[in-house]
Amino acid sequence: MTLAELLSACDELRATALQEVAGAGSIDAWTDLRTALVGRKGGRVTHLMAALPGLPAEERRSAGAAINALKQAVEAALDAREAELRAAAGGGPALDLTMPGRTAWRGSRHPVTLVIDEITEIFRELGFTVALGPEAETEWYNFGALNFPADHPAMDMHDTLYLGPGTVLRTHTSPVQVRTMQRWNPPIRVLAPGNVYRRDFFDATHAPAFAQIEGLAIDEGISFADLKATLTHFAKRFYGATTRTRFGPSFFPFTEPSAQMDVEIDLGDGRGLRWVEIMGTGLVHPAVIEAAGLDSQRYSGWAFGMGPARIAMSRYGIPDIRLLYDSDVRFLEQFA
Ligand code: DAH
């Protein structure tokens, strides 16, 4: 074969090969065709190489280049046809390296958890540690030890979720006060976050299960001044240094005197600053200190209880408490 013959054989094979490749109707036909064209043994393109040694040395280079160019053109056509066949088979493009990667999905902490963590951190700086108690609680810890009269309406079967005789789902975190005083000697400074349960409707502002966070400080000589100073410091740390606070009278059987603490905050609803109650508080009733086995002549203290869900709602402008329980990722990932 002369160089001229070889070059025209290349042109001819290019024309027929590209036509055959375009006509390959299935992956099987395509596979056979690839072997017939560029297979290492007996492929029609490969076969042209056999003519090279018969050419004069100075012609071999251009002949080799022509065969290589042919081989590349045939292979490119084969690749393109393969992608078409696979796409048509429903498998999508075999491998699309231009597709953007998927970013790793990152979870986020729940807004109520964020609030609990932030409150815990502020009180931790003041020497408070975290204490936990059971959610299935005895009537005595939940009510009796906390100075509720035996016929108090809160103990009614219709208000409280009973698990069995004498056992309730705790209605507040205050029983942890009693458990803590029984277990540790003063000075006591603890924070008790946890879930509590009430027979309540599930609507925009109520949930039958919700978080509370309880605080307790017990020592010799603790007064209402300590309560006011500590809680005012907390409010200014949590809501901002210029936030105004006020205390008003309230009633709880386990505190005397009892109070509520209000903060002046902007709820982000366009109505500007207004007073919002954020917790119940008071000096721990001597009957509670005695029920826990401590000497109420020697020890005194204060306590508070607040609802982190309410606080999260006011802080983040959440209009409906049910959003906190829906586990809707579109809502939750806003807090990442
Ligand atoms: N346990 C009360 C409730 O669930 C909240 C509360 C009020 C806790 C006053 C306290 C307190 O420790 O001193 O409504």
Structural description of this entry:
By secondary structure, the chain is of the alpha+beta class. The chain has two domains: 86 residues, no CATH class; 225 residues, BirA Bifunctional Protein, domain 2 (2-Layer Sandwich). 40% of the residues lie in helices and 21% in strands. The chain has eleven helices and ten strands. The strands form two sheets. Strands 1-5-6-10-9-8-7 form a seven-stranded mixed sheet, sandwiched between helices. The chain has a three-stranded antiparallel sheet with strand order 2-4-3. Helix 1 runs parallel beside helix 4 and helix 2 packs antiparallel against helix 4. The radius of gyration is 39 Å and the shape is rod-shaped. Bound molecules: 3,4-dihydroxyphenylalanine.
**Which strand order does the major sheet show?**
1-5-6-10-9-8-7
Number of domains: 2
**Helix-strand string:** HHHHHEEHEEHEEHEEEHEHH
Instruction: Write down the CATH topology of the largest domain.
Output: BirA Bifunctional Protein, domain 2
- End-to-end span in angstroms? 73 Å
Low-confidence stretches: none
Helix fraction by DSSP (H/I, runs of at least 4): 25-40%
Q: Bound compounds, please?
A: 3,4-dihydroxyphenylalanine
> If you compute it from the alpha carbons, what radius of gyration comes out, rounded to the nearest whole angstrom?
39 Å
- The general outline is rod-shaped
Q: What's the CATH architecture name of the largest domain? A: 2-Layer Sandwich
Q: Characterize the biggest β-sheet.
A: 7 strands, mixed
Task: Please name the fourth-level CATH homologous superfamily of the largest domain.
Answer: Bira Bifunctional Protein, Domain 2
Q: Determine the number of helices (DSSP H or I, runs of at least 4 residues).
A: 11
CATH class descriptor name of the largest domain: Alpha Beta
Mean pLDDT: 92
Please state the structural category.
alpha+beta
Strand content: 15-25%
How many strand units? 10
